[in-house]
């Protein structure tokens, strides 16, 4: 596949994705508020910038992991990549159906933040499901 990044980008993604999500989660829980109170000004501009950068570094890391070549890129790897994309799409559709059914039965979220979180979760689930299945089949199952 011509659109894949070189293999060295996978190493960058393995570092940036966990670091980005960890920083973003710590910001959401308020763990950095007291530690960096002198940096986060009263209007929250620096806080928002750090939160946005950490979340997008997580997404960029997922992108690097997903779209970088393996050391040996042959037809079997391409087939496993395609099968993993199809499996991830199926898992995302099933998650969305169950999510919408639960909203129908239990009621919609009270604010738009709940629905936004649901969509972010389903999008992230797609990429994580792909990465886990692809690497499991290549590095655990065929070893």
Backbone structural class: mainly alpha
The strand count comes to 0
Rg (CA only) = 18 Å
Largest sheet: none
Distance between the termini: 23 Å
Number of helices: 4
Any low-confidence stretches, pLDDT <50, length ≥5?
A: none
Please, what is the average pLDDT? Answer: 87
Rough outline = flat
Order of helices and strands: HHHH
Domain tally: 2
Helix content class: over 70%
Fraction in beta strands: under 5%
Describe what this molecule looks like in 3D.
The chain is an all-alpha fold. It has two domains: 69 residues; 73 residues. Helices cover 74% and strands 0% of the residues. It is built from four helices and no strands. Helix 1 packs antiparallel against helix 2 and helix 3 runs antiparallel to helix 4. It is flat, with a radius of gyration of 18 Å.
């Amino acid at each position: 596949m011509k659109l894949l990044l070189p293999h060295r980008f996978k190493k960058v993604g393995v570092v940036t994705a966990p670091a980005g999500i960890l920083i973003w989660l710590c910001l959401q829980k308020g763990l950095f508020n007291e530690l960096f109170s002198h940096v986060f000004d009263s209007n929250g501009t620096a806080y928002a910038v750090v939160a946005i950068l950490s979340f997008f570094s997580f997404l960029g890391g997922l992108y690097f992991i997903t779209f970088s070549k393996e050391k040996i890129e042959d037809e079997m790897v391409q087939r496993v990549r395609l099968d993993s994309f199809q499996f991830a799409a199926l898992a995302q559709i099933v998650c969305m159906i169950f999510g919408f059914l639960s909203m129908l039965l239990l009621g919609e979220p009270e604010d738009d933040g709940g629905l936004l979180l649901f969509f972010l979760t389903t999008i992230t689930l797609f990429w994580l499901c792909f990465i886990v299945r692809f690497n499991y089949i290549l590095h655990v199952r065929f070893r």
